[in-house]
């Protein structure tokens, strides 16, 4: 399912003194099967943007195409259920959405709402547990007996069980410890690769954006200021630094290295391996000159 | 719903805004009784002058109040019509078949409506010009003599102020959970009775659980900051009784006296 | 000689209805004016320690002393004045309806006279640079701003020790910087001891000393440099290593004869340059 935003604008509380423009002039296209990271400050419009992806919000102007569904401001769109099944959203702190008596029921809640037979949903729940890193015993437990990290995994399984074609992740690792962060990010990347799941990641972590995304969208004050591959985005780190965003530590290190050695490295380094390679090249040059 | 102004606060610096919440609370309390002194054209005229003077002093646009009270007007209209048709005293003014309107009916209808209206306006004016926390402080201060009888006045006031502080937080949270459940296929606006129940459960359970967790964490934070009940506590918020407050109470007494003299 | 601000001797604690000890026979000390980081994965007992230090939890055995005053029933309120805590969730520790009300809360609890209270509230709010928001309600503030207000509420009580109990873990990078900047600034201006319970690497790297917790016990303690030398051992218990430490290791693996694992990018670039020049 391709996703296209055309001149999208969103205003909250229209026609009241509290009117506020959260998005404007948004043009964006996300190809089916890609992994896109959206970066930007809190308040840059990221969360408003992601609520347009399954019709939780309608644009006040412009159009959003999601597959063959078109969402405009014209009328309250009906039959959004099929769309919502196809676009799963893992909200920030998704453990706050759990409510059923057992983990199994909670995982099945989404799929059953979308008309998947209960037996099939249960089967899916069982299959998903190892994927999200939970033991099978938790199925019959209350989600509220679990630790915070485990609750988050249950919530994620609940979204995955809907078998969406697109998954939207709003800072899925906020508040987790380093180990938990790594496990969750790796899991989504595996899913993306194995199931060709279109993945849209909203994140503050430049490392994650650089590591996993095919494409990065930079948002600032309600609109897109830049899009491109990680290499393209981080090639000119100054654009990001100017709007107060971080850049990956590899890039910062590269900058320092370049300054000290008085050289320019053509390709931005996004991994440590790349830095090691560049360092080797630098040192090799000297050796050559010596010979 | 959005235009409803009962319970809303409109920031301002008018003399009414700056009055001590205690004087305003006392005023509203006694006003409720004083209103019943009015029983003829003169007394109702005085009452309305008093009420509208208060609105003028508060510098809140009359149109804003009228718009905000629209839903109330329906109720007033209903009471008016009820009295209009049900009172069969005085001169007969109009007849159409079984439909009769008497002089007393019109009078009663207008009087009751005005009484109702002035009560609503004065109480609304209290909340329009006083922040909820000021109301809380005022209530706590006025009820503090009851502490002698072991009434938990401080605790009640603290509960009120914490509730006030958390209302916006809970609203945001409700919105978040609703969105998360909508994304999981819940339809909050329609569906069968059973589906609706399920939808509400999926909203309320997380909301309650999160609130309990909040309450627990808040209690811990309060304890860590040295909270151990009202005893020996000092107060940061200061209520100051000013000339305007005395003036308000005096004018209220004058109103009562005038009404008492003029009433028939 | 600097005074010992906190001393913890053989402290154990178990939550009711749980089989394992959350904190088992833990001993450590903190010097006056020091910045100590306590790290460990979720459930390692590090937050329990924070709560033990100002009497929110009582140890099953062992002794906790704050500036040589033993923590017990009679000293607890005095100690709470001296040990301020900033918690994880910015919303769930904001008691007042406005910024200044919240900062005043601790002072009200301790019966500080109003005139003095007003002064101390003003001063504390100025120290965390929130003076523009005096009358603001919490839902109009960002997470970082709320945490700064929480810090102001503690400073107003003029404590000797501030404990940051994962105080930055729910914040975005901007909020995190705001809070750390505020605490650093504060440490420059006042003689204050900071204990930060965290898994944020920046907080760890900038600390004077680090304690690593694992399964309720102190695994090791030392300067950040010493701690990160453990490398894989830390990763095994679920902790991350700073980028430059990892990069140093990678470079060593690729044959660069580095002498140490660097904690800063500057240090690493500097050594590379030295190696380069010698060639």
Write a structural description.
Chain B: The chain crosses the membrane at residues 28-58, 64-85, 114-133, 243-262. The complex is a heterotrimer of chains A (291), B (264) and C (279). By secondary structure, chain A is of the alpha/beta class. Chain A has helices spanning 46-51, 81-86, 103-113, 118-132, 148-160, 178-195, 206-212, 230-235, 237-242, 249-261, 272-290; strands spanning 3-12, 20-30, 35-39, 61-66, 69-71, 87-90, 166-170, 198-202, 215-220, 223-228. Chain A folds into 2 domains: 3-247, Rossmann fold (3-Layer(aba) Sandwich); 248-291, no CATH class. Chain A has 11 helices and 10 strands. Chain A has a 6-stranded mixed β-sheet. Chain A has a 4-stranded antiparallel β-sheet with strand order 2-1-4-5, with no helix packed on it. In chain A, strand 9 and strand 10 form a beta hairpin. In chain A, helix 3 crosses helix 4 (118-132), helix 3 (103-113) runs parallel beside helix 5 (148-160) and helix 4 (118-132) packs across helix 5 (148-160). Chain B is mainly alpha-helical and 264 residues long. Chain B is built from 10 helices and 2 strands. Chain B has helices at residues 15-18, 21-34, 41-58, 62-68, 70-86, 103-129, 132-143, 153-183, 193-224, 243-262, and strands spanning 92-96, 99-102. In chain B, helix 7 runs antiparallel to helix 8. The longest helix of chain B has 32 residues, at 193-224. By secondary structure, chain C is of the alpha/beta class. Chain C has 2 domains: 4-241, 3-Layer(aba) Sandwich (Rossmann fold); 242-279, no CATH class. Chain C contains 11 helices and 10 strands. In chain C, strands 6-7-8-3-9-10 form a 6-stranded mixed β-sheet, with helices on both faces. The longest helix of chain C is centred in the middle third of the chain and has 17 residues, at 173-189. Chain C is globular and about 70 Å long. Chains in contact: A-B, A-C, B-C. At the A-C interface, helix 6, helix 10 and helix 11 of A face helix 6, helix 10 and helix 11 of C.
């Amino acid at each position: 399912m391709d996703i296209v935003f055309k001149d999208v604008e969103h205003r909250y509380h229209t026609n009241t003194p509290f009117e506020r423009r959260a998005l404007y002039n948004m043009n964006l296209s996300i190809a089916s099967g890609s992994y896109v990271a959206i970066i930007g400050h809190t308040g840059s419009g990221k969360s408003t943007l992601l609520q347009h992806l399954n019709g939780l919000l309608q644009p006040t102007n412009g159009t959003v195409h999601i597959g063959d569904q078109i969402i405009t401001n014209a009328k309250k769109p009906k039959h959004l259920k099929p769309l919502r099944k196809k676009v799963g959203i893992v909200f920030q702190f998704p453990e706050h959405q759990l409510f059923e008596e057992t983990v199994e029921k909670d995982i099945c809640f989404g799929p059953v709402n979308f008309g998947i037979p209960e037996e099939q949903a249960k089967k899916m729940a069982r299959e998903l547990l190892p994927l999200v890193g939970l033991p099978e015993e938790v199925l019959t437990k209350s989600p509220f007996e679990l630790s915070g990290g485990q609750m988050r995994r249950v919530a994620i399984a609940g979204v995955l069980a809907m078998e969406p074609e697109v998954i939207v992740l709003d800072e899925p690792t906020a508040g987790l410890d380093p180990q938990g962060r790594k496990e969750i990010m790796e899991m989504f990347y595996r899913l993306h690769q194995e199931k060709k799941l279109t993945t849209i990641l909203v994140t503050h972590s430049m490392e994650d954006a650089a590591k996993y995304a095919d494409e990065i969208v930079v948002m600032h004050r309600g609109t897109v200021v830049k899009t491109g591959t990680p290499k393209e985005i981080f090639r000119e780190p100054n654009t990001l630094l100017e709007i107060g965003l971080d850049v990956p530590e590899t890039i910062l290190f590269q900058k320092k290295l370049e300054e000290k050695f008085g050289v320019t490295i053509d390709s931005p380094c996004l991994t440590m391996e790349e830095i090691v390679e560049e360092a080797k090249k630098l040192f090799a040059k000297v050796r050559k000159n010596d010979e | 719903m959005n235009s409803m102004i009962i319970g809303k606060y409109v920031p301002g610096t008018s003399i009414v805004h700056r009055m001590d919440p205690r004087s305003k609370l006392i005023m509203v309390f006694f006003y409720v009784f004083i209103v019943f002194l009015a029983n003829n054209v003169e007394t109702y005229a005085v009452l309305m002058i008093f009420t509208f003077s208060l609105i003028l002093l508060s510098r809140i646009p009359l149109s804003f109040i009228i718009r905000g009270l629209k839903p109330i007007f329906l109720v007033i209209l209903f009471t008016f019509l009820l009295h209009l048709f049900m009172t069969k005293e005085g001169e007969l003014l109009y007849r159409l078949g079984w439909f009769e309107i008497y002089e007393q009916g019109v009078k009663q209808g207008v009087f009751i409506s005005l009484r109702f209206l002035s009560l609503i306006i004065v109480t609304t004016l209290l909340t329009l010009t006083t922040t909820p926390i000021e109301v809380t402080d005022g209530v706590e201060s006025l009820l503090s003599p009851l502490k002698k009888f072991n009434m938990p006045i401080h605790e009640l006031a603290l509960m009120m102020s914490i509730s006030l502080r958390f209302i916006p937080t809970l609203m945001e949270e409700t919105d978040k959970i609703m969105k998360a459940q909508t994304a999981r296929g819940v339809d909050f606006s329609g569906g069968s009775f059973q589906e609706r129940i399920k939808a509400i459960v999926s909203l309320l359970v997380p909301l309650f659980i999160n609130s309990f967790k909040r309450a627990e964490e808040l209690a811990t934070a309060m304890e860590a900051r040295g909270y151990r009940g009202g005893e020996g506590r000092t107060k940061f918020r200061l209520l100051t009784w000013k000339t305007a407050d005395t003036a308000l109470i005096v004018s209220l007494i004058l109103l009562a006296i005038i009404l008492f003299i003029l009433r028939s | 000689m600097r005074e010992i601000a906190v001393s913890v001797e053989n402290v154990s604690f178990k939550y009711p209805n749980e089989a394992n000890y959350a904190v088992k026979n833990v001993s450590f000390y903190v010097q006056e004016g020091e910045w100590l980081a306590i790290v460990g994965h979720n459930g390692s007992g590090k937050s329990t320690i924070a709560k033990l230090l100002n009497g929110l939890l009582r140890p099953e055995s062992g002794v906790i002393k704050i500036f040589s005053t033993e923590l017990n029933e009679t000293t607890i309120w005095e100690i709470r004045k001296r040990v301020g805590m900033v918690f994880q969730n910015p919303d769930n520790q904001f008691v007042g309806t406005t910024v200044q009300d919240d900062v005043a809360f601790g002072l009200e609890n301790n019966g500080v006279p109003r005139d003095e209270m007003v002064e101390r509230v003003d001063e504390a709010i100025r120290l965390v640079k929130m003076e523009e928001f005096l009358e603001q309600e919490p839902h109009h503030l960002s997470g970082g701003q709320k945490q700064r207000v929480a810090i102001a509420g503690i400073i107003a009580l003029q404590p000797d020790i501030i404990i940051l109990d994962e105080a930055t873990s729910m914040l975005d990078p901007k909020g995190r910087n705001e809070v750390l900047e505020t605490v650093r600034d504060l440490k420059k201006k006042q003689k204050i001891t900071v204990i930060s319970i965290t898994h944020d690497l920046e907080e760890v790297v900038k600390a004077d000393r680090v304690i690593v917790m694992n399964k309720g016990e102190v695994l090791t303690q030392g300067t950040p440099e010493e701690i990160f030398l453990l490398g894989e051992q830390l990763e095994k218990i679920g902790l991350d290593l700073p980028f430059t430490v990892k990069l140093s290791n990678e470079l060593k693996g690729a044959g660069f004869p580095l002498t140490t694992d660097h904690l800063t990018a500057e240090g690493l670039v500097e050594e590379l340059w030295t190696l380069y020049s010698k060639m």
